[in-house]
Amino acid sequence: MRRRTTVQSLITVATALLLIVGTARSLLDNFTLKSNDRQIFQFYSEPEVYRQRRPVFASSKDQIGESCNVSGGKWIWDNKTYPVYTEESCPYLSNQTSCQRNGRPDSFHQKWRWQPDGCNLPWFDPLKLLDILSGKRLMFIGDSIQRGQFESMVCMVQSVIPEGKKSFQTIPTMEIFKAEEYNASIEFYWAPFIVESISDHATNHTVLKRLVYLDSITNQGKSWQGVDMLVFESYAWWMYHKKINKSYGSSDDIKEYNVTTAYRWALETWANWLESNINPLTQKVYFMSMSPKHLRSWEWKPGSNENCFNESYPIQGSYWGTGSSFTIMKIIQDILQELKIDVTFLNITQMSEYRKDAHTSVYGERRGIPLTKEQRADPKKFADCMHWCLPGVPDTWNEILYAHLLQNHRNFL
Question: Which of 94, 134, 144, 159 is catalytic?
């Protein structure tokens, strides 16, 4: 009898404990779902069907008002929250952008935060971005500057995805990162002129012999059709010389034209393609403004005769150098205003103008090969003042893109 009573008491206690634990867990789960601070271990422990249906939790901090001009502001030192990733934490960085791996002795360029005037950018949440991209494709289209932004976005996202749930693939003209449980992809498409050219091979190309087919975009366009979010950029390859060889109407009719004239015609061809192929109800299109070069130090340091090499701090105060073109900016503005569909213009030029310190300089590659010791010793000749180190400035470009993606996603809900 005593043994039976003891057993019944133990069962009663165990049942009570289970009820207490179950109630506490239910309360905790309810609190977790209401919280904006979602943890990756909670996310991946949930059933797949529920993960696919989870909405994006947006707060007032995620909003950028129409009056918020994110292109105007200043760089603020922030070594507590930046960088948002490191070279070591991201296996997808190329040698071209891995400055510290290539010998850069400082990391100052990684620790500046862009502070817009009168507003704040939302904090980048990779899980929110993955929710936005669920079942979708985000494609960056352009040259090696755009490839750097693609690498930046992949690095900003990939750390929250467990091993075995992500993949990276390189195919002709494209690089593709996939977050498999979200059925989402972040992609890069090599198209340095946007329209077709003899430089459209992803690796076998040269900037020296430029021939652009200003009225032809069909081949590339086939790969862009149906993509949910398209981010275009094209500038650096146009500006190698003031003249460029082009054909229009017939590939045999080749003439030399001013770059600005040819650039306008190319964007008109691109605009016509958008209007004929983009569904504005289901697709979003973005155009990145030009990424500036910092080739002449006398522009920010009067009396000097160097370039971006050995620069460690942003330019303070008003600045616009010869590495950017007001004429090209005006052409872009004109084309976008005439478009019959909405294209979001992401103006990253002015903020990037200040960042003379963040280029790859002698800590990158030249034609796909790391600089030799002798070349690094001659920065006046070999410093790359066009491409950017990662982590670095392109991360901020992606924070701005993320803010717009979040805003547009919320509008579609």
Answer: 144
